């Protein structure tokens, strides 16, 4: 029997030593724990459809060089932080100067704060469900630490632009940690983009902890080039009466994966997860979400929509787990999928695991094609067939795009999606 593949030791080579000692110690511990780690295969349930797309060759193990520069600044209202190949670029960033809000590089933390952070990193993510997130913990060279004091409110969105410069093969490990204090508020926009054509790996992890009554809005855009494998993970832990809103938009690539895990740990916590994925050519995108209802009187609502064209492949696996003590839980999950060609594939697996007896839960999934009668109606009214296809496809996802609360992001996303879909029908 052929032995299971393991993570190459080349990926465990220590990176930059510019971090505080407690974070260096954490990184070393995670690296030691990953030695001989089996890589996912088709027999690994939550990687069944994606393992064959994962390519962790030794050439990707080298950390991408940091040149200390970045692309043009965004001309949008809000604050900006720029990562270049996984390392923060202070001179390209525009920090908010707001009482009660601390934003620092991992590299600039004092030992006391770094020690506190080291104890909290990875506590929001299940190591088995998001096993490759630990690779980030073994390799991150920098990160962004955001702390909101009780009652603190960030008046404008904070944009974190993670730019990968694929001038050579290698990997980058952006890391973000957000500690939202009691009744604080923040909107965080993560945008992942790339330059260059060499094969690269981006392994990105973002963690949120929400204290009582905190309100966090997370917008995540994955729009890197065709040469970029992206493995992303987002972990969330919520306390009483906190609210977490997530809006994820993903464009396919050679291998794209996002694990989103939310734990509702105290009564009154609620979350809303929205997601849109589009794939074409031979692209692949895999969304895995988990919502843990740990406490009673918590609400969750999840809506994901996938569009696949050509010979591309989209995957959605959503799991809601209602624990025994989570009485009076309300949970709804919807996954709708649109196939634009006979060669495309979408695999969906909505899951409900309920151990409480006084709950309201529902889930559903559909897979279909564009309605021929609707296309005929538009064409008969003088609309070009390609434009009719584009209009109907955009209508399928526009409901979720319109819910993105940041106007500049919403408008940019609509333009990108429209161009992507138009290109699909041009090539059809």
From TrEMBL:
GO terms for biological process: iron-sulfur cluster assembly. Residues 170-396 form the SUF system FeS cluster assembly SufBD core domain. Residues 1-22 are annotated as: Disordered. Residues 1-20 have a biased composition (Polar residues). Pfam families: SUFBD_core. InterPro entries: Fe-S_cluster_assembly_SufBD (IPR055346), SUF_FeS_clus_asmbl_SufBD_core (IPR000825), SUF_FeS_clus_asmbl_SufBD_sf (IPR037284), SUF_FeS_clus_asmbl_SufD (IPR011542). PANTHER family: PROTEIN ABCI7, CHLOROPLASTIC. NCBIfam families: sufD (TIGR01981). This is Fe-S cluster assembly protein SufD. It comes from Marinobacter zhejiangensis.
